[in-house]
Amino acid sequence: MGKNVMVVGLLLAVFALSGCNRQDVPPKVTVRPVVVTTLFPLYDYARILAGDRMEVQLLLPPGLEPHHFEPRPDDLLRIHRAALFIYIGPFLEPWAERVITGVDRQKLRVVAAAEGIPLLPAPTHAGGVHGHQHQRSQAANDPHVWLDFAADQTMVATIASAMSAVDPAGADQYRQRADVLVRQLIALDERYRQGLASCESRVLLHGGHAAFGYLAHRYGLTYQAAAGVTAELEATPRRMAELVQQVREYKVKAVFVEQLDSPRLAETLATETGVTVRRLHGAHNVGRDELQQGVSFIGLMDQNLAQLQAGLACKN
Ligand SMILES: [Zn+2]
């Protein structure tokens, strides 16, 4: 502290001597710690907590799905130059382990935000693994933890404490903002509980990769997805036939499709059965437009709730 005061004093003296007026003072150079995040929810939480104390970056290019992301050399550079690297966990970003081996942990703090959060098993019904048998063992668990709003609360707290470790002077801000964000997530959870309490259908039929298992589990919906937990898996004809049968059996009115999935499967189901197609946002990542509009994770989840309530014919 004393040192900073001295430096400022010295600078003032220099300006005074050189006769600088206000306009001539060079812009204050503030080197803010850089935070690199992998997925949109982490980016969203980090920027809310950081305010203008840190520079928060989203590693994934807009619109790109993360399940098969491989960092390029300039991504590695970005991570290595950052003060804080936040990812979900090795079950979602297996490449992260390679990237962070050998980095100087004094300079780069690494946080697996979902560490310690219990994972749900990958749904077994989504067996459409079409020549990707090796994927089965890799995806024993469902990696989409951010679609469980209790897990989000834990991740927010984890990110806030990592930020405090990087920038102890901002600890009060990180803690206070984390408290506000956690309260907003609790309120979101409550809106979901009430909004999905009384619905004509409790079957969340998803014509895409199984991203919404946590959400369905938390609010007591039966989840049926056409494909497995990673985005490349395709539904087998057998799985499609099962889904068509379920539409009829459970009198399903809507089939849902995720933002990053091709709508083809859902459209096929809709054509075969006459149900409507509704869009859900998995929030793995967002598009360039959404990024520019400043969408928030909670905002996207409220849009999802409206889609679910309409598609499942809920009363509240
Ligand atoms: Zn996914």
Walk me through the topology:
Blueprint: H1 2-18, E1 34-37, H2 40-50, E2 55-58, H3 73-81, E3 84-87, H4 95-100, E4 109-112, H5 133-138, H6 149-166, H7 171-195, E5 203-209, H8 213-218, E6 222-227, H9 237-249, E7 254-258, H10 264-273, E8 276-280, H11 288-293, H12 297-311
Parallel strand pairs: 1-2, 1-3, 3-4, 5-6, 7-8
Helix pairs in contact: 2-6, 2-7, 6-7, 7-12, 9-10
The structure holds zinc ion.
Residues 67, 144, 209, 211, 231, 282, 284 line the site of zinc ion.
What would you note in describing this structure?
The protein has 316 residues and is α/β, with parallel strands linked by helices. The chain has 2 domains: 136 residues, Rossmann fold; 113 residues, 3-Layer(aba) Sandwich (Rossmann fold). It is 45% helix and 12% strand. The longest helix is centred in the middle third of the chain and has 25 residues. The structure holds zinc ion.
